[in-house]
Write a structure and sequence with these properties.
By secondary structure, this protein is of the alpha+beta class. The chain has 2 domains: 19-164, dinb family like domain (Four Helix Bundle (Hemerythrin (Met), subunit A), Up-down Bundle); 184-427, paralog of FGE (formylglycine-generating enzyme), CATH 3.90.1580.10. 32% of the residues lie in helices and 9% in strands. The protein has 10 helices and 9 strands. It has helices at 19-39, 46-50, 60-77, 90-93, 109-129, 132-164, 225-233, 245-253, 278-287, 295-303, and strands at residues 184-187, 190-194, 209-213, 216-219, 358-364, 389-392, 408-411, 420-421, 425-427. It has a 4-stranded mixed sheet with strand order 7-6-5-8. α1 runs antiparallel to α5 (109-129). The longest helix has 33 residues, at 132-164. The protein starts with 18 loop residues before the first helix and ends with a strand.
Length: 429
Amino acid sequence: MTSLSKPTISSRSLPLVGSRLLTSHLRQCMTECRESTLSLFKGMDYETLCCHAHPDFSPVGWHLGHIAYTESLWLLERSAGYLPQFPEYHRLFAADVLPKVDRVKLPNLAEIEDYLGSIRKQVFAYLVIAPIEQQERLWRWLLQHESQHCETIALVLAIKATQETAQSSSFISYPLPPIPDSAMVQIPAGAFEMGHEAIAALDNERPSHRVNLGAYWIDQYPVTCEQYRLFMQADGYKTAAYWSVEGWQWLQQRPVTQPFYWSDDSACDLHPVCGVSWYEAEAYANFVGKRLPTEAEWEKAAAWKSAAQPPLIYPWGDEALSPSLCNYGHVIGQTTPVNTYPQGVSPFSCHDMLGNVWEWTSSWFKGYPDFASYPYQGYSQVYFDDQHRVLRGGSWATRSWALRNTFRNWYHPHVREIFAGFRCAQDAY
């Protein structure tokens, strides 16, 4: 289990610093991130390293090599002007060359780790002389790139585990009070500032812009396993009336009867439901007479405090992330009950908005007004295709560098293997 128990520095709380202090800060972050990456592979055998556990996801060993390839490409070749590093790996570890199914013939773990180590040694040597104040955005993007791929590694390992064993029932029991049935909070009508302008913000979070919303209600907690079980027991997976046309077609083609990461253990009753597709989330919302929130509604509920104050980086404010505020970065290694972190609530008393499970929204992934690609068009813009739904909030496996109120994730609506749940919303009448 990886531990990220030390509080991390908020990009907004970082003071104006000279290049030397900024260089030291980035080196520390990159070192911590890499230690967490390598811990995922400790003792891993070659079969697991190369296993193509699901058609939508590359083997975990490929992701590890791709992290080194990307760092080398952007920092050593395109920034420092070095000759291409390890050209024998370019075809294998580039993102746009080999199909996922052909990424299974990999070097062994020691060779890939040597590749990472060699690239990182040169990167840190370059960091000493790099024009870091001009390049800071790129270095922070690479931190988040590695973090995102490591969450994919975690979910591929989880997919493989479900294929090999029965669903785990080893959920941790917590002596917590029950949550109110169908607890919702009302968010008042009005405009708020959506998006993020800090140096760490990804291209799809920018630019910040005003969004005006009518009043609405949103669930105070993500939907729990106990609540979702009622949908299952009411034949929700057999009742077409709860499903969209597209969702019902998907269900007929791939008949499932429960979430991907499901356990009948009562210890998980207050855990958020995890491993549902967008179609399943939508069907449940219809079952209870609600809907999924838009991503703007989700972000306002998480980040907005008042018109007189800027949006919050985290639901609890701008205080740095810590394990007392939410479930993230493998600190726990699984989901936790939705009311575990009372200190991490938003100003509207919404719980669990960061960490634990990603939350589906009703929104298609699109660029904000005046969107500009960074560092390349294919990072976000290629997915503005009306085929990817937005998820918000992060999961128990999301690292601190990719966790904030404005961070946007996106997947096809049929994908259910990610660590995803949801909360519901309603119009205010």
